[in-house]
Amino acid sequence: MSSKESDRFISTQKTLDILYEMSQLLNAQLDKETLTTCVRMIESGVNPEALAAVIQELRRENSALAGRAPASAAPQR
């Protein structure tokens, strides 16, 4: 990896770290992998407001499904 590529990688990592800290402060509940995916989608032209709406809807659906799951369906250890 060239010095320029290395500098770019470090800069990208620092930016992601800052975005992650901001997401933590805002209680966005996004892990670094999900946040990275969201940033890449936005950089590719996805509308940020539409992406946020999709994430919120997926969370609502997940909560609804979790609330309907019978107790016996819980994974056994």
TrEMBL record:
GO cellular component: gamma-tubulin ring complex; interphase microtubule organizing center; mitotic spindle pole body; spindle
Entry protein name: Mitotic-spindle organizing protein 1
Organism domain of life: Eukaryota
Keyword annotations from UniProtKB, A to Z: Cytoplasm, Cytoskeleton
Record bears the keyword Lyase: no
GO biological process: gamma-tubulin complex localization; microtubule nucleation by interphase microtubule organizing center; mitotic spindle assembly
Pfam family, one: MOZART1
Similarity remark: Belongs to the MOZART1 family.
Function: Required for gamma-tubulin complex recruitment to the microtubule organizing center (MTOC).
InterPro entries with a match to the protein in the record: MZT1
Subcellular location: Cytoplasm, Cytoskeleton, Microtubule organizing center
Signal sequence coordinates: none
PANTHER family the record matches: MITOTIC-SPINDLE ORGANIZING PROTEIN 1 (PTHR28520)
Organism: Gymnopus androsaceus JB14
